[in-house]
Structure formats: C-alpha cells, structure tokens
Amino acid sequence: MRFLPGHQATTDLTYHDVFLVPSRSDVSSRFDVDLATADGTGTTIPVVVANMTAVAGRRMAETVSRRGGLVALPQDTPTDVVADVIARVKACHPIVETAVTISPHDTVGEVLALIGKRSHRAAVAVAGGHVVGVVSEVDCHGVDRYAQVAEVMVTDPMTLDLAAIEQGGLAGLRAAFERLYAARRRFAPVVDGAGALVGILTQVGALRSSLYSPALDDRGRLRVAAAIGINGDVRRKAAELIEAQVDALVVDTAHGHQGRMLEALAAVRSLAPQVPVVAGNVVTAAGVRDLVAAGADIVKVGVGPGAMCTTRMMTAVGRPQFSAVLECADEAHRLDRHVWADGGVRHPRDVALALAAGASQVMIGSWFAGTHESPGELHADSDGRCYKESFGMASARAVAARTRGGEAFDRARKALYEEGISSSRMYLDPQRPGVEDLLDQITSGVRSAATYVGAANLAEFADRAVVGLQSAAGYDEGRPLPAGW
Q1: Which residues pair with 265 in a beta bridge?
Q2: Contact, 358 vs 348, CB < 8 A?
Q3: Where is 202: in which H helix or E strand?
Q4: Cα separation of 198 and 96, whole Å?
Q5: Which among 298, 302, 359 has a CA at the least distance from the CA of 329?
Q6: Long-range contacts, stretch 78-82, CB < 8 angstroms, 24+ apart
Q7: Backbone angles phi, psi at 61, to 5 degrees
C-alpha cells in the first residue's frame, strides 16, 4: 500500500479518515478475485468472527466456515463445552445446512420457538431418521399453538439427493436450484442414498455454495478456532483444545503487550502446536516484535475500536485503527508473520481498508451480533422489531461470567472495574437478518474494491492499493441518501 502523492499523514488515522483511489485494472469481474488468505488458517474469505460470547457459537461457526470464514469460540466457555462444539461443527456438511428437526407430535408453539431463529424459518419433521414432512412459519399462521405438527405440516415433501449435489459440482448446485425454483420452494430437505435426512438446501444456499468455498481442514471438515486467556493453566487449556482438533488457537487479552502474555505464548509453544497461534491485542510494531518472538504466528491488532468497548473513553489508551494496522502489518511482514485487524469495522469499506493496510484477516464482532446465527435469544421490542443482546468482553457482565468459579469477594472487586458495555440491543436488519447476508455484503464490497485497484487476490490488493486522506465532509459525501434529498 502507498499513500496518494501529497497525502502523507501527520496524525494517526481511522478508517473514516482514508479512501481508496481507483487505478488501471485488468480484472474485469469481481468473481475473478480470489479472497483466500495466506496466513495458514485455511480460510477462503478474510473474515474472522470475534471470540465474543454474544456472537460466536456453534451455529455461527458452522455457517461462517461453510462460507469460507473462521469463528473463534470464546475463552469464557469451559474447554469440554468448546470441544463438544468443535466436534459438532466438524460433523456438519460443508454444503448442506443443518436442519431444524422436529417430531410430528411436537406442538406448533414448539416449532415457532425454533424456526424464528433461522433465516429460512422452516423445520423438517422426522420420524425414524426419515423425512415425513416440512413445516414453515406460514403453515403455522392462525393455528392453535398446542396443535400438533402433523396437523399443519406438508407431507411427502420434495427432497434433494445428496450424491447429486456433492458429485455434480457447479452443475449439481445449478440443478438443485432449478428444481427448487421450478417447484416454487425456498428450501428442501436433502437425503442420502438410504433416505435419511442430512440437512436442507435453500435456493440462496445453492447460489452461495457456487460462489463461496468452505474453509476445510485436511480431512475435509469445517474449520473452527478457539480462544484462551492468559491466566490460569494456559498450557492445559491449550492442550485440551489441540486434542479437540481446533484449527487455530487465539491467545487473547485486551492488553497483549505484557509479560503474562509472553509467558502464556511460551506455554502454548511448548506443546509444539501444528495449528496457527494467534495472540493479541497490540497496536505497535514493538508489540508485534515481542509477540512474534514469544511464538505468535499471527498478531491481533486493535485496542479500543470495538463497538462494545469503552477502553478509550475510560483510560485514553488505544490507537486509531487504520494506522495501528498499517504499522503492525508492516512489522509482521518484515518478520514473515501476519496480523488480524480486530475491531472498528462498521461497513464493508472498512474491511477493504484493513486488507489494504496489510491485514490478512479482519475480525468482526458486534456487527454479527444482530443475526439469526449469534447465540443470544431473539427478542422483540414494543414496535415488533427483532433484536439480540450484545455485550463487551471487558464489561461487568463478561467479567462476572469469566470469574464465576472464584471467591465471591474477589469477583465483586473485579466487577467494580469494567471497560465495556454490559447490554446493548443489536437489531436484526429485516433485509439482512442472517450472517450470510452480511458476508455477501462484505465480500461483494471487497471484491469490487479489488477490481477498482486492479488486484486479482489479497496479496496484490495490499501491494497495489493507493490510499488518500479525507476530511469528515469527504467521508460524509460518500454516504448514500436512501431517503432522498
């Protein structure tokens, strides 16, 4: 990356302060842009879901990995639970979505409680492992909540053959889409050769599977990462996660440039892990050097830019994110290592700018909290708008969860100090209620940015990007006006 002539910065910069300049390009289509990363994590899009309790869970991990990204499971979760989540994610099919399954004898109320958490808003009725019906939200309208599913489900539904989808490649996905489209079905159960349910495929899911490549390990299973803290028996926790076949270890703390982090990295490295070790967070080249020297393959960059983080207002500590990523990425590349840009992302443009600054991946948290796939319960406000609750990982709520095994007095003392928001409503966008909708938006923006720059892959993008400085008015000029003049 280089700055536009005459645009050298004299102060640190946020993503709002900069813009990308179009250059001559021979990349004619956004579909020609390869978004696979080269940091050893095996992802095919440069997106990592942050290890936030309100964001990263099993369904998020399954869905994002199927589209080529990676989810870091939170450090607050007991390792045996994380191991179970890893096993369940790796058991998921890389193309076919895991179905919401019900019994014909379940009630309509039970079904509505389940399908409201899925973008396709439907469930498959199963008996003896075989599909006996499907039920959608529409089928339940005006029906007594205590009525049985058998009374409202569509019996003998159309099904799709797994072998035809797996072996057909793009042609198989096209054929599945055309069958759904011709039958005017948004989704259909997918069954194996014995007729047993494997999952479901939606029309849009078939399209996405033709555009995205899943993030798969060397055994063809979906990838998932997990985080550990720097306190307690770090070596034991890391060993348990490695035994559970995690695909990346994230050693995580708000202030990563400290002695305890270096000790934690040494403990993890003593296990000789065969997976990438990520550590952070830092915002300086010195921080990168020390973490790399201690054993980090990837360094997480960002202090205070997150939507749920109050660190900068509470402590004045942090650094504008674009400049932090730029400096840290330069140092990491000098050491043949990589950085993840963690926090501060509000729009697809910010992801593109972080990649232009040299990040191999961009870590996103709160933006994904308001989706069907995040772990929180779905609520509705007085106007009927759906939302989920989110909270910062340095908030009193997160600290209480992280210290739940300690003495009451010590827990109460720690709860007095917080640097994050304990409760925030993250509203689901009716037009983009699922994380896949947001991934479509993000990857579309990044691919288009690459074509403007003339880059066919992320390495070329970081090399060819030209960045200029802008005023607040310049940033505002680029914002759309959906309500008109």
Answers
A1: none
A2: no
A3: strand 197-202
A4: 7
A5: 359
A6: 79/237, 79/240, 79/241, 79/244, 80/240, 82/226, 82/241, 82/244, 82/246
A7: -60, -45
Collect all residues with Cβ–Cβ distance below 8 Å to 391 and sequence separation of at least 6: 53, 54, 308, 397, 398, 420, 421, 422, 423, 424
Q: Tens of pLDDT along 389-422? A: 866 545 555 566 655 667 777 777 776 766 655 5
Among all chains, which residue has been given the structure tokens 């000029």?
477
- The helix/strand count (H/E) of the chain reads as 16, 21
Q: How far apart are CA 135 and CA 66, in angstroms?
A: 25
317-349 burial, b at 16+ Cβ within 10 Å, e below that, comes to: ebbbbbbbbbbbbebbeeeebbbbbbbbbebbb
Q: What is the mean pLDDT of residues 355-376?
A: 93
**Radius of gyration for the chain, computed over Cα atoms and rounded to the nearest angstrom:** 23
Domains of the chain in start order, with CATH, are: 2-93+216-477 (3.20.20.70), 101-211 (3.10.580.10)
Q: CA 411, CA 409: separation in Å to the nearest integer?
A: 5
Residues counted in the chain: 485
- Please provide the DSSP assignment of 300-364 as one string: EE-SS-STTB-HHHHH-----HHHHHHHHHHHHHHTT-EEEEES---SHHHHHHHHHTT-SEEEE
* pLDDT per residue as tens digits for the range 260-309: 999 999 999 999 999 999 999 999 999 999 999 999 999 999 998 887 78
Which residues are catalytically annotated? Answer: 309
Q: What is the pTM of this model?
A: 0.89
pLDDT category at 381 given cuts 50, 70, 90 is confident
